[in-house]
Design a protein that fits this description.
Elements lengths: L3 E3 L16 E12 L10 E4 L5 E11 L2 E11 L4 E9 L5 E9 L23 E11 L7 E6 L4 E11 L2 E11 L12 E2 L2 E7 L8 E12 L5 E3 L2 E4 L5 E11 L2 E11 L4 E9 L5 E9 L23 E11 L7 E6 L4 E11 L2 E11 L12 E2 L2 E7 L8 E12 L10 E4 L5 E11 L2 E11 L4 E9 L5 E9 L23 E11 L7 E6 L4 E11 L2 E11 L12 E2 L2 E7 L6 E11 L13 E4 L5 E10 L4 E10 L6 E8 L5 E9 L11 H4 L10 E12 L7 E6 L4 E11 L2 E11 L12 E2 L2 E11 L18 H7 L12 E3 L2 E2 L5
Parallel strand pairs: 1-15
Antiparallel strand pairs: 2-3, 2-5, 4-5, 4-7, 6-7, 8-9, 8-11, 10-11, 10-13, 12-13, 14-16, 14-18, 17-18, 17-20, 19-20, 21-22, 21-24, 23-24, 23-26, 25-26, 27-28, 27-30, 29-30, 29-32, 31-32, 33-34, 33-36, 35-36, 35-38, 37-38, 39-40, 39-42, 41-42, 41-44, 43-44, 45-46, 45-48, 47-48, 47-50, 49-50, ...
Length: 823
């Protein structure tokens, strides 16, 4: 069956009969030449146009010192006739640009411009000035440019990128040269030259801006229409952004849902990844994601073929379920007989969110288990956010605004505003809004949490916990159920108005609001009546927030009671501790690296930020090394930890040579910035010197994979003394990481546990799922799965194609946008 072509992204173009159609000259060219070669001439081909179409000529000539760049496109066009027009977009000396355009229909081959003669004459010699600039015209790069003396009056050096699109041309030109003005406006606001679209970007890094395929599609189809193909539009990305492909295919009996997103992204590059979130028969879900930066339009997935192959007929069981995929409702769903092993009827709602996608889909079908977990805990698929709600009344569940943020701003920036995401709540739950604003001299802290709640409804409530001048605290809380997205509080305006000027007193206090530390706090004169200097720590927990704030400022009383005994603000729990020793500043960050020989060669381990720890927390730094021989992985975390041990340093070898090496380093300390190791040598220097064991007779596949199942493993001859081939998985949670590791390799010990049943390594909570330890990997014997073949629930959640998820702080990057955080 040939693929059905989807016209959804670009639309259809109807080709009309070619009756009395014109024949036009046709061709395109781009070339950089020396100006001594001008004038240039060319010959082109011919093409028959659609009826009513005309012939077009477009030529652009950029002269730049000793070089000239020619762009030429000829062919058919729907544009109106236009007499030959020569436009001087920028006049020399220095950089000069001229174009020629024409549209004609009076006879065949009327677009007959064949040389640059009408556009170019030999320029008069220019008087040299005093400024020297690099000069370059190149579609590749300007690393080996030469400098020239600019003409008098041209005292600015231009450095930019021209993007040329249309008429069969899709190219970037790097331009450097002499200009009379300091502006990124080489073409004097020109955006269209005949069939060419031109755009411009300046600066040394302009070349890094990509153009990506762009488009979105959400469509329910019949499975008989698969495989599908599509074409997409295009979009110019921001500098440094990449191109992304996201495709999700949900198959449900005779129907399938296709969700497609293409465009620009700030995410890191990621090779093409296909994940089977749920395998059929019955309901099945598969996705494809990719992020790339190596060239324009690299997000070039054109069809569902990599994801989908026709399924063999399933053996039918005895259970019948309604089957439905619909954006509207499932009142007219039809029943089907489910495959053997699929004895549960799924009934739920999927919410899909992403750039230009906001859709809710009702799903009914056959499942192998009675669970509201269609996507196996997946919340993100590429640029797509997905959430789920089950039950016959699922459609009645509220949708609430959802997001969290903790941010410090200058008081001059108030009032502040924000936007957030959305979340489908459990049936019967309401929507909640909680905002707290702390004003402290020139600074303010905003704490915001929105989402679902089981609390009873209550009207909007504004509470002044501490009144200024000096330190002041006000909060807003609300719970509602009367409509979707009713927790729509979006600005600090109801909480804040500019305070009247306060008379200064005689006491001066350091003033600070910071999640990192107050070493550089400035002193301010306190208002009259505020003669005490507050110094304490506030800790916020709940509603998706876990943050600690250092506070210094002016108060009217000497007490550690900034919030006037308040302990709960909406879903937020707040606690307080005062005094200079209340705070502890630790380095914070994660490291993750794949490489060969990480057990021998140390790598850098610098923290990205600093953090103020909680009231009972100390600093920690932890490394976990996994070396399977052919490759190795090291994962590290720096930050805060709550532990009974205040100061300790431990190196553990969980699995030692011969065979795989699994080792860890944990350092816990109680002084500011004490978790300051700068390389992984703190672990490697404590390991025993590696021996060179003799080779044995056993061969095993070796692999360590982060977030994916090992598929293409490398086989090695195991060292003497190994007893079997290990295959399994380790889940890691904590320390800023949430991940699943797939591991294969040679094993020395008789136990089937690589970690010797260790479940805590510093902040890392670890769970191991050894799928098989087989003493003869060539025997073909079936793996001995855990629990008599039934994988445990955590195994399903972590391993079955879910991929890697970094649990980064979910909050504000700016106050203009809040990202949803599902707790």
């Amino acid at each position: 069956m040939s693929p059905a072509v989807l016209p959804a992204l670009l639309g259809l173009t109807l080709v009309l009969p070619r009756v009395q159609a014109l024949t036009c000259q046709s061709g395109r060219a781009m070339a950089v030449r020396n100006t001594t070669e001008l004038p240039l001439e060319w010959t082109v081909g011919e093409m028959i146009c659609n009826e009513g179409w005309g012939c077009q000529d477009t030529v652009m000539l950029i002269e730049n010192g000793p070089q000239v760049f020619l762009v030429l496109t000829k062919g058919c066009t729907q544009e109106k006739d236009q007499e030959a027009r020569i436009t001087e977009h920028r006049k020399g000396p220095g950089l000069s640009i001229v174009s020629y355009t024409r549209v004609c229909r009076h006879m065949d081959l009327c677009n007959d411009l064949s040389s640059t003669v009408p556009l170019w004459i030999l320029p008069a010699p220019a008087v040299p000035g005093f400024v020297r600039c690099p000069v370059c015209l190149s579609t590749k790069g300007c690393e080996s440019v030469t400098e020239v003396t600019c003409p008098i009056g041209h005292s600015h050096c231009y450095n930019g990128i021209l993007k040329l699109r249309g008429g069969g041309i899709n190219s970037k030109l790097r331009v450097q040269g002499c200009m009379s003005q300091a502006a990124c406006n080489l073409l004097n606001e020109t955006r269209e030259i005949g069939s060419l679209s031109v755009s411009e970007k300046c600066g040394a890094n302009g070349m890094e801006a990509l153009t990506c395929q762009s488009g979105v599609l959400v469509k329910v189809i019949n499975v008989t229409e698969l495989p599908l193909e599509w074409t997409a539009g295009q979009k110019d990305c921001e500098e440094g952004w990449g191109c992304q492909d996201t495709l999700m295919l949900l198959e449900d009996g005779p129907q399938a849902l296709l969700v497609l997103m293409k465009g620009c992204t700030q995410k890191k590059d990621q090779e093409a990844r296909i994940i089977q979130h749920r395998e059929g028969p019955g309901l099945s879900i598969v996705s494809y994601t990719r992020v790339c930066r190596h060239e324009d339009f690299c997000n070039d997935l054109p069809s569902t073929i990599p994801l989908w192959t026709p399924r063999p007929p399933a053996v039918l069981g005895s259970v019948r379920c309604p089957v439905c995929l619909s954006k509207e409702g499932c009142e007219s769903a039809t029943e089907v007989t489910c495959p053997v092993g699929h004895s549960h009827c799924y009934n739920g709602i999927l919410r899909l969110r992403g750039e230009d996608i906001s859709s809710t889909l009702r799903v009914q079908g056959c499942m192998s288990q009675a669970a509201c977990n269609l996507l196996n805990e997946t919340q993100e698929i590429g640029s797509l956010s997905v959430s789920e709600k089950c039950g016959a009344k699922g459609a009645q569940a509220l949708t609430c605004q959802s997001g969290t943020g903790v941010v410090v701003r200058r008081a001059t920036e108030l009032p502040l505003e924000w936007t957030v995401g959305e979340k489908i709540c459990n049936e019967g739950w309401g929507c909640q809004d909680t905002v707290m604003l702390i004003e402290n001299g020139p600074q303010v802290l905003l704490v915001l949490t929105k989402g679902c709640t089981q609390e009873k409804d209550h009207k909007a409530r504004v509470t002044k916990h501490r009144k200024g001048p000096g330190l002041s605290i006000v909060s807003y809380t609300r719970v509602c159920r009367h409509e979707d997205l009713c927790n729509d509080f979006s600005t600090t305006r109801p909480l804040w108005s500019p305070p009247p000027l306060a008379a200064p007193g005689s006491v001066r206090c350091p003033v600070c609001l910071s999640t990192e530390g107050c070493e550089s706090a400035t002193e301010e004169t306190c208002p009259v009546g505020h003669s005490h200097c507050y110094d304490g720590i506030l800790q916020f927990r709940g509603g998706g927030i876990s943050d600690t704030l250092r506070v210094q400022g002016c108060t009217s009383q000497a007490a550690c009671n900034l919030l006037n005994e308040t302990r709960e603000i909406g879903p937020l729990s707040v606690s307080e501790k005062c005094g200079a020793k209340a705070s502890r500043i630790c380095e914070k960050g994660i490291v993750m690296q794949f490489e060969k020989n990480l057990a021998k060669q140390p790598v850098e381990w610098d923290a990205s930020t600093k953090v103020t720890c909680g009231l009972e927390e100390v600093c920690q730094e932890t490394l976990l090394l996994i070396d399977v021989g052919s490759t190795s992985l090291i994962v590290g975390s720096k930050g805060c930890i709550k532990t009974e041990t205040q100061n300790s340093q431990t190196v553990s070898i969980h699995s030692g040579p011969p065979g795989m090496l699994i080792a860890s380093y944990t350092h816990v300390c109680s002084s500011n910035g004490c978790n300051s190791a700068r390389s992984t040598s703190v672990l490697l220097n404590s390991l025993p010197p590696p021996a060179a064991p003799a080779s044995g007779d056993l061969q095993c596949p070796t692999c360590v994979q982060f977030g994916e199942v090992c598929i293409s493993s490398k086989h090695i001859t195991c060292p003497y003394g190994t007893t079997g081939c290990y295959k399994g998985y380790i889940s890691i949670k904590g320390g800023g990481l949430t991940s699943a590791l797939s591991i294969q390799g040679c094993m020395a010990q008789s136990s089937n546990s690589l970690l010797n049943h260790t479940n805590m390594i510093g902040p890392f909570h670890t769970v191991e799922f050894p799928e098989v330890v087989n003493k003869d990997p060539q025997s073909g014997a079936a793996p001995k799965a855990l629990q008599n073949g039934a994988a445990p629930a955590p195994y399903l959640a972590w391993v079955v194609g879910l991929g890697l998820s970094l649990a980064l702080w979910c909050g504000m990057t700016t106050l203009l946008t809040l990202f949803p955080c599902d707790s």
